[in-house]
Amino acid sequence: MRQLTVSIDRFPIAGKFTISRGSRTEAVVVTATITENGAIGHGECVPYPRYGETVEGVAAAIEAMRPQIEAGLTREALQSFMPAGAARNAVDCALWDLDAKRSGIRAHVTAGLTRWQPVTTAYTISLDTPAAMAEAAAKAAGRPILKVKFGGPGGDIKRIRAVRRAAPDATLIADANEGWTEENLEAHLAACAEEGYALVEQPLPAKADGYLSKIARLVPIMADESVHDRPSLQRLVGLYDVVNIKLDKTGGLTEALELAEAAEALGFSLMIGCMVGTSLAMAPAMVIAPRCRFVDLDGPLLLAKDREPGLRYEGSLVYPPEPALWG
Hints:
By secondary structure, the chain is α/β, with parallel strands linked by helices.
């Protein structure tokens, strides 16, 4: 017989995490645990206010699925019972983990991977003043890929240039989190091109991104807030070059795998990304990582304390999870 447990867990962030929409000092996550005949599956999600989610609402949505889950709901059936989003992500990933624990077949094998190797993750530089961001970038300059948050007051040209000066050898990704406008977009893209940024992520609000079809593509542009699952994908053709897959948007690994395949068929490159969560949230995303041009799974690196056991990080190199963590 199955049993479902839902918990709200808090993990302090090391310092402060700041993007264009605000700052926070802790990661608040919802954990779903499904137990069946001695096997235990775990899944974590990070509710996101940008998508109308609250921690309490997501926990309640998972609790509402208790009868179906405890009656033996499958991952395949789950997709039609719950909408894409954080709540379904926690349940879906818990079911993947439970299946792996019961069968003894690792999740990556079930997903079609024959080899599961470590990958290099980007490391996030939070939005701040140009001087503070340059200082943070200089401290992280030994990391090969930096994802830099923009979209703050006072314009970002100085920030774009300051970070490049501080990390001259790093691959840089600019992430505006919808914080730029039609009026300043081309100037910002030009600055990113001049400074050799590899990618610009979600420069405009999702509802205003049609403007991207009207401008020169100085740097490849990636969708984040504009892409969630497969139904959101077709509209992005001609607007973006890359899509950022996050399990909290897709509603779990099951849809993320389908989204990755559909995006590649339409000619998009891929990034696998994350919210600020623990190693339990990153672990299932590692199944997508081998097919991605960029990997951004640095959530645990931003925390003052991670789950135990957690993922193994060596600098920016992140290793696949051990079974004790997930999958």
